[in-house]
Amino acid sequence: MKTYSIREVLENLDKMPDSWFYLPNSGWNLDTKGAFSLDSRDFPADSTDYLPPQVASEGWIETLDTPMIQDVIEYTDRQLPSAKVEDYFEAFKYYFENDAFMKF
């Protein structure tokens, strides 16, 4: 599966797959690479073949899906009209850790 940096995802979300974004278990920065899952409905119920291989080999974890990442970006833009990718990244991490939008 193709990998993308967090920066690429946040700056080009409209070009990303509509699925869950997986990342290493810790130590994220804007250059950290992750991968999107495939659509699990296209695989047998007991299959994990839709997951990025790094989930099994490196312990990658499910973070946010594409629509939720879009919501995080839009919420950040409403608060910070001149938001930068670093702001989106902080908001992304905050949402992942707290299941809530970040207040700037």
Number of strands: 4
The assigned structural class equals: alpha+beta
Q: Give the domain tally.
A: 1
Roughly what is the average pLDDT, rounded to an integer? 96
Folded structure, characterized:
There is one protein chain. With 104 residues, the protein is an alpha+beta fold. It has one domain. Helix content is 38%, strand content 15%. It has 4 helices and 4 strands. The protein has a 4-stranded antiparallel beta sheet. The mean pLDDT is 96.
Keywords:
single chain, alpha+beta, four-stranded antiparallel beta sheet, 4 strands, 38% helix
Question: Could you outline the blueprint of secondary structure elements for this entry?
Answer:
Elements: E1 3-5, H1 6-11, E2 20-23, E3 33-36, H2 54-58, E4 61-65, H3 66-79, H4 85-98
Antiparallel strand pairs: 1-3, 2-3, 2-4
Helix pairs in contact: 3-4
Short overview:
The protein has 104 residues and is an alpha+beta fold. It has four helices and four strands.
